[in-house]
Amino acid sequence: MIRDITLGQYYPGDSLIHRLDPRIKIITTIAYIAALFIADGFIGLATSAAVIFIVTAVSRVPLSFIMRGLKPIFFIIIFTFIINLFMIPGETLISLFWGLTITKEGLRTAVFMAVRLVLLIIGSSLLTLTTKPISLTDGIESLLKPLKVIKVPAHELAMMMTIALRFIPTLLEETDKIMKAQQARGADFESGNIFHRAKSLIPILVPLFISAFRIAQELAMAMEARCYHGGDNRTRMNAMKMRAGDFVFMVLTLAFIGIIICERYFI
Amino acid sequence: MNDSILKIENLIFEYAQYEDGENVRAVDDVSLEIERGSFTAIIGRNGSGKSTLAKNINGLLLPTSGTVYVNGIDTCDESQIWEVRQTVGMVFQNPDNQLVSTIVEDDVAFGPENMGIAPEEIRLRVDEALKAVGMYEHRKKAPHLLSGGQKQRIAIAGAIAMKPECIVFDEPTAMLDPSGRRDVMNIIKDLNKEGITVVLITHFMEEAASADRVIIMDRGVILADGTPQEIFKESDKIREINLDVPLAVNLADRLRKNGIDVPQNIISTEELIEWVLS
Q1: Same domain, A124 and A12
Q2: What pairing do the DSSP bridges indicate for beta strands B39-44 and B213-218?
């Protein structure tokens, strides 16, 4: 069971979006989020929505997958919607009991904010849905490289992320093993209230930490044996290359940002 | 000219013991030469110092005293340590804890990437190494979805991709099931046939029997050194230090005790079967 876990929320595929350079995807995602905050009218928001739905369609990620990403923040969306709906002063639309009123401005802001939040989540989850965690790491490393001048350890950060991704399943297996070993000796993880159950997890954490340190030591030795000496003079087998598609996507994103800016300042 | 790839002179290695201040001597004055292209098995109990010896060979551990030469380079020479580690590859016991990447082929590429080799050349080496261990069709998979034997083959491919002259295997089959063990042993034998010097650390006597030289270590010293035939001839001495002898040797000993004259040079099951049949 534990072997089946997927890392991150990557949706395997081979669409145009999947094949884009991870750096381009990261940059365009950031640009898209920025655009959502620049847009202040419904035309801008509608354009943004249209764009993200086209990209989703091209990526061939099923809508159900994207909706799953919305679930955890569903409550926040509803909450902001209600707060905005009642708290913004302005021209009264409907008067409710207890002096609660829905104003025209309130309704407008509420809908606007909710749509903006939904688009924000869809936009950023598209990045993680269409990019393998390992490519994301490579992309981040490459983008952070210029910051080396101000001593940002780009390579080391990326290596840590890669190793973390690699060892999540290993550590899960280890946890499973420790829990089983303790259950065999009568440990009880299932009954009692939440505090009781949380307390019974402590005896798992100690051996888990010890084995994590042991794994780290063995891994460090194996890496040294394979000549690892940090990021200097290191080459990559799959060097990231910008292709025509990446440039086209970049231009399209710029055009989109242009539309949003025009909409805000000139219309 | 002496054609030994490894030369160990009076190696002593001590682990620092923090609790009572006294150091533990894991390897005690070992001198050894390993011939280029040979297949040497080092056997011994747990704590006999065999793994420590292995880690001294490619500079993962540095001698407390004495010297280790790899192709004439002293492992203590920091400026050439990467040269040493490229010459002597290493495969460890736990297949899980030596794979770095989440994709098989990226993991095999890890060593060559560290060596700063051009991307096209890395691609060639990775494909070649994966084919050599029969894992080419699994190149896009995640390591945690593979079996122990398959993971160990990936680790071997990772070592091969660095084009080492010698590979030290530190109990590579200890955590594998019988079929995984067989696969790994076959790969090790094939690599040796292709000219790579193999140092195999193990406590499976059957594996040691397929080497052309066997070294027995106990308490940090070399107890015996010779061809498998010479070593297993003195099977009583091996049992004395609580090690097993190969099944065939055991059986031949018992047959001899019962008056059947089995030749001394039989050490593997296949040889014994052949002799019985003829």
Answers
A1: yes
A2: parallel
Q: Measure the N-to-C terminal CA separation of chain A; round to a whole number of Å.
A: 56
Q: Do A166 and B114 touch (CB under 8 A)?
A: no
Give the strand pairing for B4-15 and B65-70. Answer: antiparallel
pLDDT tens per residue across span B53-79: 999 998 899 999 999 999 989 999 888
For residue A147, tell me if it sits in a domain. Answer: no
pLDDT average, residue stretch A163-173: 86
Rounded-to-integer distance, Cα B271 and Cα B262, Å: 11
B118 touches chain A (CB under 8 A): yes
**Structural domain count, chain B:** 1
CB-nearest to A235 from B99, B118, B155 is B118
- Residue B237, domain member (yes or no): no
Share of chain B above pLDDT 90, in %: 48
**pTM of the predicted protein model:** 0.81
What φ, ψ does residue B41 adopt, rounded to 5°?
-110, 135
For B168, the domain range is 37-63+82-227
Q: What ipTM did this prediction achieve? A: 0.86
- Structural domain contains residue A85: yes
B206 assigned to some structural domain: yes
Instruction: Tell whether A74 and A120 lie within a shared domain.
Output: yes
Q: Which residues of chain B make contact with A236, given a CB cutoff of 8 A?
A: 109, 113, 119
Please check whether residue B216 touches A, CB under 8 A: no
Farthest CA pair distance, chain B = 65
User: How far off is chain B from A222, nearest CA to CA, in Å?
Assistant: 5
Interface of A with B (CB under 8 A): 3, 7, 133-134, 162-163, 165-166, 169-170, 173, 215, 218-219, 221-229, 233-239
Q: Which amino acid would we find at residue B202?
A: T
Question: What's the pLDDT at B20?
Answer: 67
Q: Does any domain span residue A146?
A: no
By C-alpha distance, the chain A residue nearest B54 is A225
CB contacts, 8 Å: A222 with chain B: 90, 92, 97-98, 100, 155
